[in-house]
Structures are given as structure tokens and as C-alpha cells.
Amino acid sequence: MQSSSAAPWADLESALARAFDPQAARLAVAEHVRHLTRHGDFVRWSRALDALPATTTGWSIEHGWLRAGAGQPDVAALTETLKVLSPWRKGPVCLDGVKVDTEWRSDWKWDRIAPHVDLDGARVLDVGAGNGYFGWRMLDAGAEFVLGCDPTQLFVLQHAMIRHFAGAAANHLLALRLEQMPPGLGDFDAVFSMGVLYHRRDPASHLAELAARLRPDGLLVLETLVVPGDGEEVLVPAGRYAGMRNVHALPSLPSLVAWLEQAGFASARCLDVSVTTTEEQRTTDWMPFHSLADVLDRTCPDRTIEGLPRPRRAALIARR
């Protein structure tokens, strides 16, 4: 099918209205548009979206890469257009033959989680979805419908670029925080919150909101930063953590399980704990700014430049 550019919310309301309460869909899309269009770079980004070439749409996952579009003869021109929306953080993606080498090898995270979750026929919410890369992995794993939410306008425009090449698919993205979504957008079979919890000032409130979006016995997939320890420690950084200003609390694994139980989740199980490496998160041509290597202590790589434990991430599942 041939694709041409459209507004990043062109089919969003109708898709949400089919899946949820139509009034909730209208409210969500109205706030989505308001939030997107107030950004100072929205017009510049929209021009880049409009400049994308018509293409034969389609998508697939190949060795972790999201490949969308049929291939573009003018690779240099398309590369220049895609880079208007830098930095690209989640991927990797290949758009019409242009390989976008993102900051994160998000496929590695997915490979740690995917063997443990069954998404066949599921309706999924992806909180902090970024550009929606994981939504494509969820559809590829059998999900019937994916809704992402992320307040970062740049990522939502990147998602629109990906959809331009991928074509119509049940992977949608709202430019909203989870707590801004109308209550009528709920009853999900599975909710993913990956890389979000440590950014919330009130982790308990975030976990409660995740629970509220799930159907009874629905699946939570939680991935977040943790600190070493067998007790119920919680690290509250006094300033920055790994160069980030907005990191509020890093629990030990036992603390994280306790938080889940206090939020009403059951059967919590840890799938994986991995120290983040500079191969998984790094500076690239598509994300040319500071990354993990710049925030680790060069004399003691197990510590951050603030003298705190280096990033390690835990992935857990639980049931509402």
C-alpha cells in the first residue's frame, strides 16, 4: 500500500473510539493535540513529517530491528529528514532502508522479557512508550491492540514517522502522561511500565495507577532501576543519579516486590536483573549527546560519577 504523510493524530480518535468509550477517546485526543501543538518545534517537526517520501508500507521484525517501508533510493535525503527528529533513543529501527542506530538496543531488553509473557490476543498499554518501538514488538508477539502514552512530543512525532513507513497498524501513541489519560481508557489485559518508576516522585501512586488500568488478573510488566541488596533498602539520590536530574527512588529488589504487594499486586516474580552496559546504551550518530559511558566513574566503572552504584535494571511481572 502506498503511504503519504498525515497529521500524527489522523486516525487516532477513531481507533480509540472503537476500543474504548468514545467520549474518553475524544477527551484523550483533544489533550493529545493540545500538548503536541504547543511545543515550539512542532511546526519544524511537522514539516519533516510532511517531507517524507511516499512509499510502499509494511513492517517486520528482523534480528531485533523494526523494519518499515520498502526501501528508498535517495538514502541521503531521507537520512537528513529523519535526523530532524533527533535524538532517536529507542530502537533499532530501519525506515525505508535507512538504519536508525538508536541510543538504546531496546531489543536486548525485549529479549529478556518476551519469553516470560503471553500477549496473544491481548490489549496492551505501554507507559512511557517513547517512539513506540516496543509496541511493534508487542504486536509481533501476538497482541491485538497496543496503546502507548508518553508526554515527550518529539517521540510522538518519531512514532508518526515510523507509522508513515509501517502503514496502518494497531500500535497507537498518546502524547500524555499516564495520569492524564481519561479513566475510560482502561481494562487492559497487560500493562507495561519500563524505565518510568524511578522518574516518579510518588512510586506508590504510579503503581496504583498501573493497577487501575488493568482488568482483574491482568498482567503487569515492570522494568526499573534497582540497587544491590537483600534487605528493603531504597536509595534516594540527593542530587543527580547517572547524570539524570529526575531520579527519585531506587529500591532494592525486595523493596520493589514489597511496593508491588502494597499496591495490591500478587504473584510478583523477577525475570531478570542486568547491569546496563555501554553496548546496550551508547552515543550514536542518531543520539549524539552524553550517554551511559559519560556518567560512569572512569576509575571505578561500578560507580556513577556521583559515586553511586552504576545502573542496573530489574524486570518483574505481577498480577492485579
Q: How is this structure best described in words?
A:
The termini are far apart. It contains nine helices and 15 strands. The chain has helices at residues 12-19, 22-37, 42-50, 75-83, 106-113, 133-140, 153-166, 203-213, 253-262, and strands at residues 2-3, 55-56, 59-62, 65-68, 93-95, 98-100, 123-127, 145-149, 171-174, 188-194, 214-226, 234-235, 250-251, 266-275, 312-319. Helix 7 (153-166) links the parallel strand 8 and strand 9 (171-174). The chain is globular. 29% of the residues lie in helices and 23% in strands. The model has no long low-confidence stretch (mean pLDDT 95). The strands form four sheets. Strands 9-8-7-10-11-15-14 form a seven-stranded mixed β-sheet, sandwiched between helices. It has a four-stranded mixed β-sheet with strand order 3-4-5-6. With 320 residues, it is α/β, with parallel strands linked by helices. It has one domain (2-319): Rossmann fold, CATH 3.40.50.
